[in-house]
Write a structure and sequence with these properties.
- By secondary structure, this protein is α+β, with helices and mostly antiparallel strands.
- The protein folds into two domains: 130 residues, no CATH class; 203 residues, no CATH class.
- The protein has seven helices and ten strands.
- The strands form three sheets. The chain has a six-stranded antiparallel sheet, with helices on one face. Strands 7-8 form a two-stranded antiparallel ribbon.
- Helix 4 packs across helix 7.
- The longest helix has 13 residues.
- The two termini are 13 Å apart.
- The N terminus is likely disordered.
């Protein structure tokens, strides 16, 4: 069993509820009457797409991208795009998020097909999130789509949408999908005292010659001989250790790292971490209580049902579940990966 397989032998035991720091709390309730200080009132105002917005046909200076292991968002599908100012370049980083130039716009559209077995048909788009780099600060904006599906409007206070669909296995599914408010966006994207992207690292983007295309466009001036790669946690051919670490990184590590919102937990859950101390091996819970489910340890090797980690990622109780924002449902497939990972663990002497 590799060192990384031991990952959070105590992972979630150290998870504690977090509060948005003072820096990201608005002075007053967001108001829709003064949107100009935040961003354009309508998504169409950015000219990111041509033709009908819902078709996601990018403008000539807007390009699609994808990542290996996406964050779970109640099974919502996502379409991602990026716009880089002409003549600008991206600073390469082998471990963290790329260093993007001023004026970069990151676009993420969230939608549900009526039937997941036919994902290109009968699509309902719920929201589009933008991250715009202005004055060396990332501005996070959320646009909520109308019922006509022909426009999305800036919404600072968030929203909730009831969604129903037919799942991959033919079962009927539904959820009260939560669209985050301004503070929630900043809270999840906070790194230190700055709002930052989460998934745009070389390790996440290293798929299907995607980075080579960025080099050909002149966005990246040079790539190292070997580019690191985060595996896709859905890849059944990949080692279970790597799959579980990838799932934990994208779903947990944006907070559980030394400069994240949950830094007081003492856990660092990036897949690149190998230190047992940073991973939490042998670490007692910061606060047990309800979040422990009466279980003593975050991970009990070979026994997922005795592990706090499994208890929390399987829960939908707001006072227990992890991650605590961004989902209402249990990620059944992701939990299965973590369960298999724990089941294969050998007892630590």
């Amino acid at each position: 069993m590799k060192l990384v397989c031991l990952l959070a032998a105590v992972l979630i035991a150290g998870c504690v509820p977090r509060k948005p720091p003072a820096e990201v709390v608005l002075a007053e309730e967001p108001s829709q009457h003064d949107l100009s200080a935040w961003g354009k009132e309508k998504l169409s105002g950015y000219s990111l797409f041509i033709g009908a917005l819902k078709n996601f046909d990018p403008a000539p200076d807007v390009f699609p991208y994808d990542i290996n292991s996406p964050l779970f968002s109640d099974y919502a599908y996502k379409r991602r795009f990026i716009k880089i100012p002409p003549g600008s370049t991206i600073g390469y980083d082998g471990a963290e998020v790329f260093h993007f130039p001023e004026g970069t716009i990151l676009v993420k559209n969230f939608y549900y097909p009526a039937d997941f077995r036919n994902p290109e048909k009968d699509i309902r788009v719920l929201e589009t999130r933008l991250l715009i780099l202005e004055g060396e600060t990332w501005k996070a904006l959320t646009y909520v789509w109308n019922e006509a599906q022909d426009e999305a409007v800036l919404e600072l206070g968030g929203s909730t949408k009831r969604v129903a669909w037919t799942h991959y296995n033919g079962s009927a599914m539904e959820v009260n999908y939560s669209i985050p408010d301004v503070n929630q966006c900043k809270s999840c994207h906070l790194k230190g005292d700055k709002t930052m992207p989460i998934g745009l690292s070389a390790r996440q983007l290293n798929k299907k010659k995607q980075l080579t295309e960025w080099v050909e466009r002149g966005w990246i001036t040079e790539l190292p001989p070997v580019v690191p790669r985060l595996v896709a946690y859905e890849d059944l051919e990949a080692p279970i250790d790597d799959r579980a670490r990838a799932w934990l990184e994208i779903n947990c590590a944006h907070c559980h790292r030394p400069d994240g919102q949950a830094k007081t937990s003492g856990l660092h859950l990036m897949a690149t971490v190998n230190s047992l101390r940073e991973l939490g091996l042998g670490k007692a819970p910061v606060a047990a209580g309800k979040g422990s489910g009466g279980r003593m340890f975050s991970i009990v090797p070979g026994r997922p049902d005795a592990s706090i980690l499994v208890y929390r990622i399987e829960s939908t109780d707001p006072g227990v579940m992890m991650p605590e924002m961004g989902r209402k449902l249990v990620h059944t497939e992701g939990v299965a990966v973590v369960r298999a990972w724990i089941r294969e663990m050998k007892p630590v002497n």
